[in-house]
Amino acid sequence: MSATTISLEIADPYAQALMALAQDQNLEDQFGESAQEILDLLSASEELDRFLSNPLVAEESKKGVLEQISTDLNPLFKNFLKLLVDKGRIGFIAPILKRYQELLRQLRRTVLAEVTAAVELSEAQQDQIRQKVVAMTDAQHVDLAVTIDPTLLGGVIIKVGSQVVDASLRGQLRRLSMQLI
What we know:
Layout: H1 3-25, H2 28-44, H3 46-53, H4 59-69, H5 75-86, H6 93-107, E1 110-117, H7 123-137, E2 141-148, E3 155-160, E4 163-168, H8 169-180
Parallel strand pairs: 1-2
Antiparallel strand pairs: 1-3, 3-4
Helix pairs in contact: 1-2, 1-6, 2-3, 2-6, 4-5
Subcellular location: Cellular thylakoid membrane; Membrane
Family: Belongs to the ATPase delta chain family.
Main location: membrane
């Protein structure tokens, strides 16, 4: 079994439990925002991620750090994070929270579009991309995850699930060179 498979097998039940708790309290979206805040913190601080994943760090130290970084979060969400520490699953916090967000998107009939652009996109451009993705997928809502890649030269690459739309200048040049060959 790969590490990813093990991670998903551990993450799914905890994400399902968090979703059940959120639904009982009508806090699905609030928990989704909290999950994103924690994921942003983890991606911004590799040190924090290593600290929480380290099995040699005392549980109380981990809970103390979680308390400090989650002061504005819902108490039920904070208790869930502490439960992960108690169960020795805090090292899987990122996969659990990402899985929760997937469940929330399924619940809200929302798709995630991973957009790679050559430059920062304006709101109007992002709205155009959302409209195109809604037309492609029949989803009710679209979340955009935008990444900037100057090597594209211009245009965008949109990935929704297994579908990829390459409207980048680099992609067009590659297709043109293939036709010439």
